[in-house]
């Protein structure tokens, strides 16, 4: 089925149904573990002709319009993509989250960032286990000037993606995951400007995270030195934090994961997903930004100070 390639890029286990029959589940891991370009970066005449033929056979089938929207998006034809997904939604008033996601992507591509943010946030609420809406929220927030919200979305993406056995966020993952087409390169450029890691290998594995943190203190500051943060991790797992990390004492932290380590604090007063840490490009000990801690509150550069 030519549509399977497009479906594989996005759909989670419960989002698809077509004509009353369940569509075979195609997990995210297929697209990320393969390191292949699954969605066509240049759909061209062949793919769009197949989709147009499907629409001609069954003009009432909303899914053909949705898949066509993604193919057009991948090729940078944003106005046509928006028109196609609007037609899909018109034909299916109870549109699944996938349709809303595609409309959010089309709005993002057209620079309608407030609209894109609302649509993609809605997808996250309807499908909290879906990481792809979080991925497109990252550049949406960055272009809106909301950097910490972008990093929060990155933390949610990491939490969901790593739990599926996939990779955390990186410029290369985004570029490949969005098909190496015009959208993939545009989003990758936005992330690169915000100093997101170029490759997933920048994220520390569990063993390196333990060596960096356990039995040590870390400290960081913003570029203008106006805001500082500090944390200490005792060998028994006790953790204290201060500054813009919040005032937390006598909590505990567990470091989980092998390939991609996660710091999971246990605070009675703070509900947070696990943090991940990456090596900051061009970071330095003098500037206290060798590493960047990313959690649902945002991104926090730091260095070890003892």
- Contiguous helical run count: 12
What gross morphology would you assign? elongated
Gyration radius over CA = 21 Å
Order of helices and strands: HEEHHHHHHHHHHHEEEEEEEE
Helix content: 40-55%
Give start-end ranges of low-pLDDT stretches.
1-45
Largest sheet: 8 strands, antiparallel
- The quaternary state of the protein chains shown equals single chain
What does the average pLDDT come to?
83
Strand order of the largest sheet: 7-6-5-4-3-10-9-8
**How many β-strand runs?**
10
Q: How far apart lie the N and C ends?
A: 57 Å
Overall structural class, as computed from helix and strand content, comes to alpha+beta
Instruction: Name the beta content range.
Output: 15-25%
Structural description of this entry:
This protein is an alpha+beta fold and 306 residues long. The protein contains 12 helices and 10 strands. The strands form 2 sheets. It has an 8-stranded antiparallel sheet. The relative contact order is 0.09.
């Amino acid at each position: 089925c030519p549509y399977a390639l497009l479906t594989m890029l996005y759909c989670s286990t419960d989002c698809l149904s077509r004509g009353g029959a369940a569509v075979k589940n195609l997990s995210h891991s297929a697209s990320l573990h393969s390191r292949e370009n699954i969605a066509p970066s240049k759909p061209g005449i062949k793919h769009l002709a197949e989709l147009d033929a499907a629409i001609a056979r069954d003009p009432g089938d909303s899914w053909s319009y949705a898949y066509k929207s993604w193919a057009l998006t991948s090729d940078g034809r944003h106005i046509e993509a928006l028109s196609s997904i609007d037609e899909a939604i018109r034909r299916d008033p109870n549109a699944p989250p996938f349709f809303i996601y595609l409309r959010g992507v089309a709005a993002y591509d057209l620079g309608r960032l407030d609209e894109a943010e609302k649509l993609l946030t809605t997808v996250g609420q309807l499908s909290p286990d879906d990481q792809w809406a979080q991925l497109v929220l990252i550049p949406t927030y960055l272009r809106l000037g909301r950097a910490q919200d972008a990093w929060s979305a990155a933390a949610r993406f990491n939490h969901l993606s790593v739990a599926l056995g996939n990779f955390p966020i990186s410029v290369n993952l985004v570029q490949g995951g969005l098909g190496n087409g015009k959208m993939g390169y545009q989003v990758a450029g936005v992330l690169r400007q915000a100093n997101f890691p170029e490759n997933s290998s920048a994220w520390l594995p569990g063993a390196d995270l333990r060596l960096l943190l356990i039995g040590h203190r870390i400290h960081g500051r913003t570029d203008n030195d106006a805001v500082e943060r500090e944390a200490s991790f005792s060998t028994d797992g006790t953790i204290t934090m201060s500054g813009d990390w919040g005032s937390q004492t006598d909590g505990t932290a567990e470091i989980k994961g092998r390939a991609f380590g996660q710091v999971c604090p246990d605070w009675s007063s703070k509900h947070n997903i696990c943090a991940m840490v990456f090596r900051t490009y061009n970071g330095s000990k003098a500037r206290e930004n060798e590493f960047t801690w990313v959690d649902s509150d945002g991104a926090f550069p730091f260095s070890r100070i003892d």
